[in-house]
Specification:
Blueprint lengths: L3 E5 L5 E5 L2 E6 L2 E7 L3 E6 L5 E2 L1 H9 L3 E5 L5 E5 L8 H9 L3 H25 L5 H7 L10 H14 L13 H21 L18 H6 L4 H13 L7 H8 L5 E4 L2 E4 H18 L10 E2 L3
Parallel strand pairs: 1-5, 2-6, 5-7
Antiparallel strand pairs: 2-3, 3-4, 7-8, 9-10, 9-11
Helix pairs in contact: 2-10, 3-4, 3-5, 3-8, 4-5, 6-8, 6-9, 6-10
Length: 298
């Protein structure tokens, strides 16, 4: 079953556990409840929220990603379980001991897939992507020529126009991108922890102030799904991160993707990609598994 992304966006709410449910209350009055087993990500973007320890404990046991957001829908804190998988100790040791050549080859595979998905996204939006495709063929081990950065500059101009700059605190459509990436990043982090890896130990991202380096590595090929969704929202005239836009961006996790096992939603594709990354660390050779083409309306 595909887990749900639950956002708490209204101020003054209290979250607690009650007989297998997460309850949401205000001033002592229950406003709603959600089965704990249905939750994949709890996104807390409101102010003045309070939580019961029992709730956080039960969510952690279930591997739920609890994300606390600051301004501009950017995460400022995460809660994840200390036990993610019965092979956790082995896999974290393999992750820590991964050689530089292995990490470089893994990053090569991720960048190639990211540029490929960017090209597919442009094609779905009826935008020529020939130059981007040619860049994708130039990715070498470790991406020493920074194809990722060069492709990004071209891609952003093509998808959102020549004046667009991707900035975390920039004007629209940056807030929409931030929100979509936060949802996606939370799911990637949850999948990483669930398969026994540590989200802070990256293969390319190594910012010591970033607790989600590995999540920021593995998320890259999935980002274009958010970009596509934001582009479609802009076509419909969306100019703010309202409830309708949020619902649409959360829906990215349910987009069907073509895979070698048939059609699967993005959420399951992320889990499979994380498992293949964990196996790559164990086997000491890259064997990443990514979906191919999304099944979306043109």
């Amino acid at each position: 079953m595909i887990g749900r992304v639950i956002e708490i966006a209204n101020d003054g709410r209290h979250l607690a556990r009650s007989r297998g449910f997460m309850t949401v209350s205000s001033d002592g009055n229950e406003l709603g409840r959600v089965p704990l087993d249905d939750i994949a990500v709890l996104l807390c973007s409101a102010r003045g929220l309070t939580y019961s320890n029992g709730l956080i404990t039960e969510l952690s046991k279930r591997g739920v990603a609890v994300v606390l957001c600051g301004s501009h829908y950017l995460p400022v804190a995460w809660i994840w379980p200390i036990e993610g998988n019965h092979r956790q100790t082995l896999r974290m040791r393999c992750q820590l001991e991964a050689s530089k050549p292995l990490c470089k080859r893994l990053w090569q595979a991720i960048v190639k897939e990211k540029v490929k998905q960017q090209s597919i996204t442009l094609e779905m939006l009826k935008i020529p992507s020939g130059s981007l495709k040619s860049l994708g063929r130039q990715v070498r081990s470790g991406d020493p020529s920074n194809v990722e950065g060069r492709a990004a500059r071209l891609y952003w101009q093509l998808i959102f126009g020549g004046d667009f700059k991707r900035e975390r605190f920039g004007p629209m459509p940056n807030p929409l991108l931030n929100y979509g990436y936060t949802v996606l990043r939370a799911e990637v982090a949850r999948a990483i922890v669930s398969c026994g890896l540590h989200p802070s130990i990256g293969i390319h991202h190594h910012n010591r102030g970033n607790p989600m380096c590995l999540a920021d590595d593995l998320i890259e090929p999935f980002r274009p799904l958010v970009d596509y969704t934001v582009a479609k929202l802009l076509q419909l005239g969306t100019q703010e991160v309202d409830n309708e836009a949020k619902s649409t961006l959360v829906g990215v996790l349910a987009i069907d993707m073509n895979t070698d096992r048939g059609v699967s939603p993005v959420q399951l594709c992320i889990e499979r990609a994380a498992q293949s990354l964990a196996q790559s660390f164990e086997d000491k050779k890259p064997s990443l598994v990514f979906p191919s083409i999304p099944v979306v309306e043109s």
